[in-house]
Write a structure and sequence with these properties.
Structural class of chain A: mainly alpha
Number of domains of chain A: 2
Radius of gyration of chain C: 19 Å
Bound molecules: flavin-adenine dinucleotide, iron/sulfur cluster
Distance between the termini of chain A: 30 Å
Number of strands of chain A: 0
Distance between the termini of chain C: 32 Å
Order of helices and strands of chain A: HHHHHHHHHHHHH
Number of strands of chain C: 8
Number of helices of chain C: 12
Chains: A mainly alpha, B alpha/beta, C alpha/beta
Largest sheet of chain C: 4 strands, parallel
Largest sheet of chain A: none
Structural class of chain C: alpha/beta
Oligomer: heterotrimer
């Protein structure tokens, strides 16, 4: 954050209201700012904003900063905060909602490409019906830094050696029906 | 019979008029049968509002009044009095609640207006068939029952006794004192709890007007307002308290040992025991479960030691019946079971304590004789106090326990004073509201106690490391410094929430006092009558009505006592004239009614096989009316015909608008009675549009 | 006992050892598993980050395919179990989201009425197959073997079912049934960081390191987990500074089914022990077994 002064009218884009209107957001307005989530979160210590702070920023209407933050993308979906939050906020689900929103609004942090991984994953599933780990990793690494593939070499080789990575992608039986479901669902997104 | 009815529609400022179109309600009312006039007014409860009613009754010869306003809980008394002051029997005044049940809970203004019209139509319909009933007054028995002998019960009992009334104080433990007897010092002044409490306890024990029934519980409540008959079970103590002089010899050799509940399970007590040294009464009781004689058939050591011959293994429970005119409930609180939050390690790590355990620890009369020691006997160097354990937590108690911040400050001070340890308070918000409380907080900050704003997420053990004892790691986000802190400490204190004591539900049922969602007793009015209940002869005091500290508890207890004293001084109470009546021609003498009547008001004369209701005992609760399989029982002004007439009126109004108002509204109202269902209907439509 | 089997993608990819060992013991347990025909990816934690309706529809398609079979749908993967369970709840609760999912399924000619019962393998073993039956299948009591139960996240959170979400016991019960000693540790339900394996290995690594260390402090001989992702991730975490650990330093991380198979005398080949990516796991596990067996004189 560069400036410490928040000019309300300019910054407030109603993110709080938007999130609160979602089924998973029903209790976000009740956040106590107690920090249970942050201190529970296994990755919080490494995040630029703790989960609690994300909620404070949502409240402050700091839409760009929230959606541009990698915090939601680093959420490991462990649900530990969700079961402990005294306000019973579905934090992990809210993190998903923030991820979706950041992609949809084109605000995802461009210096980080974690979100690309999730998009690639979804693309592969939509196309093949199942995930093909090798394909996903190769695509992701190629997109990210092709050289990183080399550093993964020994582990990767080992994974092939033990036969735990399959080379053949899966073929669906009812392709057409599946594709229709995927297309329709994509259209119906919130 | 035709009536002359007036309808008054209240705006209640914007409370009603902000949602309901009051003018159209009053216009509609004019069209209802028997209604001779209808008016709307800003505040019906104001003096001019009441005058309006009185005036119309005089001038227009009204014989029925409907006030469409708030809940009858609020102003039924006001309007009844206004009517009877000019000679209209108050049973001919009906309230139509268009605020709590309509304007406050209905979102859509149109729907609210239509609903208000239905409610008013129903009230008029009902009123048309109501009968005037005579008012009844009954004398109030000149004695008071206080249930629970904590500081609240003690205060209330003393005050009523000093005013000259006979008081029965029932306490289920063998001594009075409650939680205050367990505390060491009290915030914010840090005066010794026992020093200020014991004189009051002694006074209770000695007061000629107080009959202390310790080790006893209320089993049944009967009778009627102003004359309640209460059955009390006096549990067998196996010690004749008349003979016992409280010397304590018996306890010395008793081999039966169990963990001491007064010391929160730390330390031991004997099977024959007094609760604590300053107990009142200070006579011991024998705990059957722990007694070797009762369990194994051999021992009786105490009997041999007692010089008074007071030990009596044959003693039986006694049942005692008393009559009282007023009741004060003061059953207090208990504390949240910290095991329900396993992330804090209570019960898992020996050095995680509850606040109450630490109270006993710092108390010189307690299990560690006032020494703050860890489970291994050493003195802690760092201590963390975890606030809000079970409070402000939707998973446990959503409410704030109000006193934990303050007692945490107190314990922080005491721990520092006793051990010079580094003390951390981990809190969500500091709530120090009260006289001298903020100053106490300030003092603690100046004393160097650490404050971390963040709720503790977990307490873990880092395990022993060589010769060094393992530390407890307290994890929380320091939300102000914006870092996650892992604080190694030797001792963790959990500030557990206050909750209604076990048995509160049964007590509520016995005495007919409602409880809120959390289980605390509900006051008659949260602001204007925070010590009364919906039952005019029953009052509440102390933490049984919600978390509070000692000063507030004592104030409420005094208020409850003056409520009881006022009632006894008045000497009589008005009771509902509504009574049940048996229509003998329908009665099959199945006697269902006799068994269900909570007031024992129904008798069956064997000789002529007649069932009849004693009007002085009948409270008009209607239980028998609902239960009677033959439909023979009937309650005044609640007869089947009268109720049907009311329903008919509600529905007929709807029928009439079906033809009058325009389409959309019409449909909505016919199909859905409440605005909730109305809203749902619209949602359904939205949903359909998604699908297409 | 007949049930439907939902493998999930891992089972067919990186966690073939889990599937192979599951089939190796299922006949012993008297369970016949029928793979759900034409199942698709549950969407897991990834698709929901991109498109919620899509993620629910993906999961719901499987539920719809399973419904007519009228059998419980058992999956060994906690993440699949959670995705399927969540979709099931959303649909059963009704509301706009459920409606959207219904419409999406209908586009593909499918419908789902909430009739599929989803079970996770671990819980299914404890509550359905029963510890008694499992105990009867144990032919080599693993007495003396110290086994760290590692649950991972999603099998206990946010829905723990009958188990205690803070201190679950299902794994302990299963370990105990083999005669081995379950050695619980603080981090048994902590997150291994698996979701970050591909995206932020630095962070993921720190998390899995802590767990391995936690298991080591309770002197575990091996770690058992019901989660294929955790199993892989913890194994990967043993690869440090460009090399695999030496034999003594390595801590075998086994799939639940591999572990149970050991006690049921299923051959290491059938249990796919050699598929472990940490070299030498097969050797060290069988070694440890031999040792316990010889010291207890069985
Ligand atoms: C750890 C801790 C520290 C505290 N420190 C302070 C402080 O420093 N300063 C301060 O102002 N406040 C303090 N408090 C609050 C204080 O304890 C309460 O305000 C006070 O005790 C309330 O008194 P009470 O009479 O309402 O309830 P209680 O003290 O709970 O007394 C209720 C009594 O009723 C009896 N009873 C219950 N049910 C029945 C029944 N069915 N029949 C008959 N008898 C029954 C009980 O046995 C008990 O004797 C503290 C509280 C705790 C938990
Ligand atoms: S745990 Fe819940 S209430 Fe507390 S800061 Fe996090 S989101 Fe807010
Ligand atoms: S679910 Fe996400 S935000 Fe919550 S604790 Fe786990 S990683 Fe952190």
């Amino acid at each position: 954050m560069k400036s410490k002064t928040l000019v309300q009218a300019k910054e407030d884009h109603g993110l709080l209201e938007e999130i609160a209107a979602l089924p998973e957001g029903e209790r976000v307005l009740s956040c106590l700012q107690c920090g249970t989530c942050s201190a529970t979160c296994p990755v919080a210590a490494l995040l630029e904003h703790s989960p609690r702070r994300i909620f404070a920023m949502i409240r402050a209407g700091m839409k760009e900063q929230v959606l541009g933050s990698v915090t939601p993308w680093l959420c490991s979906s462990c649900y530990d905060c969700t079961v402990k939050c005294p306000a019973q906020i579905k934090i992990t689900e809210v993190m998903y909602a923030l991820k979706r929103r950041s992609i949809r609004e084109g605000l995802a942090n461009q210096n980080s490409d974690v979100h690309r991984f999730y998009q690639l994953f979804t693309e592969i599933v939509c196309k093949h019906g199942r995930i093909h780990e090798l394909l996903l990793l190769l695509k992701y690494m190629a997109l990210r830094h092709p050289l990183s593939m080399l550093s993964q070499g020994p582990v990767g080789l080992r994974m092939f050696g033990t036969g735990c990575m399959r080379v053949q992608p899966h073929r669906m039986k009812y392709r057409e029906s599946f594709a229709k479901i995927v297309d329709k669902a994509s259209l119906l997104e919130e | 019979m035709s009536r002359r009815i007036a309808v008054y529609v209240c705006h209640c400022g914007s409370n009603i008029a902000g949602k309901v179109d009051v003018r159209s309600v009053s216009e509609m009312a004019k069209s209802l049968p028997d209604v001779v006039l209808a008016k709307e007014y800003q505040f019906m409860c104001s003096e001019p509002g009441q005058e309006l009613i009185r005036n119309d009754i005089r001038e227009c010869g009204l014989d029925g009044v409907v006030v469409a306003a708030c809940s009858p809980l609020m102003h039924e008394g006001t309007f009844r009095a206004a009517c009877s002051s000019v000679g209209l029997n108050h049973y001919l005044m009906q309230m139509a609640n268009i605020r709590e049940q309509c304007s406050w809970v209905t979102e859509d203004p149109d729907a609210a207006t239509e609903k208000a019209k239905s409610i008013v139509a129903g009230a008029v319909g009902k009123l048309r068939s109501l009968k005037p009933l005579a008012e009844r007054e009954v004398p109030v028995v000149q004695s008071v029952l206080v249930v629970g002998g904590g500081i609240a019960g003690i205060q209330a009992a003393i005050q009523c006794a000093e005013a000259g009334y006979k008081v029965y104080l029932v306490e289920r433990k063998q001594s009075i004192g409650g939680h205050m007897a367990m505390l060491d010092k009290t915030f914010p002044t840090l005066d010794c709890s026992a020093c200020i409490l014991t004189p009051k306890m002694v006074k209770v024990g000695q007061h000629p007007n107080i009959r202390l029934l310790a080790y006893s519980e209320v089993e049944a409540v009967g009778g009627y307002a102003g004359n309640m008959k209460v059955r009390i079970r006096r549990r067998a103590a196996y010690v004749d308290h008349e003979r016992c002089n409280g010397c304590g010899l018996c306890q010395e050799r008793c081999p039966g040992k169990v963990s001491n509940e007064f010391e929160q399970g730390k330390g031991e007590r004997r099977a024959i025991y007094t609760l604590f040294p300053q107990a009142v009464p200070s006579k011991p009781v024998i705990d059957r479960e722990a007694c070797i004689y009762f369990q194994k058939g051999k021992c009786r050591a105490c009997e041999k030691l007692c010089r008074q011959g007071a030990v009596d293994f044959e003693q039986k429970d006694l049942i005692e019946e008393i009559q009282v005119g007023a009741i004060i409930l003061a059953t207090g609180h208990s504390t949240f079971d910290a095991r329900k939050m396993p992330q804090y390690g209570y019960g898992k790590y020996a050095d995680v304590y509850t606040a109450l355990e630490v109270e006993r620890m710092v108390n010189s009369g307690g299990f560690s004789e006032g020494h703050i020691r860890l489970s291994d006997g050493s003195t802690p160097k760092a201590v963390a106090i975890v606030h809000c354990v079970g409070s402000r937590d939707q998973r446990h108690h959503p409410y704030c326990s109000e006193i934990c911040c303050m007692y945490s400050l107190k314990l922080a001070h005491l721990i520092k004073e006793h051990t010079d340890a580094t003390v951390y308070n981990l809190y969500i918000d500091m709530r120090c509201v009260g006289k001298g409380y903020e100053e106490f907080f300030d003092r603690l900050m100046a004393e160097g106690v650490h404050f971390v704003r963040g709720k503790v997420a977990s307490v873990a053990s880092n395990g022993a490391n060589g010769s060094e004892r393992g530390k407890l790691l307290v994890r929380a986000e320091d939300t102000l410094a914006e870092v996650i802190r892992e604080i190694p400490v030797d001792m963790v204190v959990l500030a557990t929430a206050l909750e209604p004591t076990q048995g509160t539900e049964e007590v509520g049922k016995l005495f007919g006092v409602a409880r809120n969602q959390a289980g605390f007793f509900i006051e008659q009015h949260p602001k204007l009558n925070p010590f009364g209940t919906s039952n005019v002869c029953t009052f509440i005091a102390g933490t049984c009505a919600g978390p509070k500290d000692i000063p507030y508890t004592v104030s409420q207890a005094s208020a409850a006592a003056s409520g009881a004293i006022t009632l006894l001084r008045q000497g009589k109470v008005l009771v509902e004239s509504i009574a049940a009546r048996n229509r003998e021609e329908h009665c099959a003498s199945c006697l269902t009614c006799v068994s269900v009547c909570p007031y024992g008001a129904i008798t069956h004369e064997k000789e002529n096989d007649r069932v009849s209701v004693d009007e002085t005992l009948c409270q008009g609760c209607g239980t028998c009316v609902a239960a009677c399989p033959a439909g023979a029982m009937e309650a005044d002004n609640y007869t089947d015909e009268q109720i049907l007439e009311e329903i008919e009126a509600v529905l007929s109004w709807k029928k009439s608008i079906k033809t009058k108002t325009h389409d959309v509204l019409k449909e909505a109202i016919v199909e859905t009675q409440s605005a909730g269902a109305y809203a749902e209907k619209h949602q359904l439509e939205d949903r359909d549009s998604i699908a297409t | 006992m007949k049930c439907l089997y939902y493998p999930g993608c891992s089972q067919k990819g990186t966690s073939r050892s889990y599937e192979e060992s599951l089939f190796a013991i299922s006949s012993k347990l008297g369970v016949s598993l029928h793979e759900l025909e034409d199942w698709n990816c549950c969407g897991t934690t990834s698709v929901v980050a991109v498109n919620k309706v899509l993620s629910l529809a993906l999961a719901a398609r499987n539920l719809a395919l399973a419904e007519p079979e009228g059998l419980p749908l058992v999956t060994p993967c906690p993440s699949c179990w959670l995705s399927l369970t969540r979709a099931n709840r959303v649909i059963k609760e009704g509301g706009p989201l459920a409606e959207k999912v219904r419409v999406a399924l209908a586009a593909g000619g499918l419908s789902y009425n909430g009739g599929t019962v989803i079970r996770h393998l671990m819980e299914f073993m404890v509550n359905e197959i029963g510890l008694e039956r499992i105990g009867q299948c144990v032919s080599t009591h693993l007495t003396g073997l110290r086994v760290a139960p590692y649950y991972g996240c999603q099998v206990v959170r946010p829905y723990a079912g009958e188990d205690d979400p803070y201190d679950p016991q299902n794994l302990e019960k299963l370990i105990d049934a083999t005669g081995a000693l379950p050695v619980s540790f603080e981090l048994k339900t902590a997150c291994c960081g698996g979701a970050m394996m591909a995206t932020r290995k630095d962070i993921g690594r720190q998390m899995s390191d802590k767990i391995l260390q936690g298991a080591r402090t309770v002197e575990a001989d091996l770690v058992v987990t019901p989660c294929p992702l955790c199993q892989l991730n913890l194994e990967l975490a043993e690869y440090k500074n460009g090399r695999w650990p030496w034999e003594e330093a390595e801590l075998p991380v086994l799939n639940l089914t591999q572990f149970l198979g050991l006690a049921m005398d299923v051959s290491p080949e059938k249990l796919a022990l050699s598929r472990s990516i940490v070299p030498g796991v097969k050797r060290s596990v069988t070694g440890a077994l031999l040792q316990t067996v010889s010291t207890t004189g069985e």
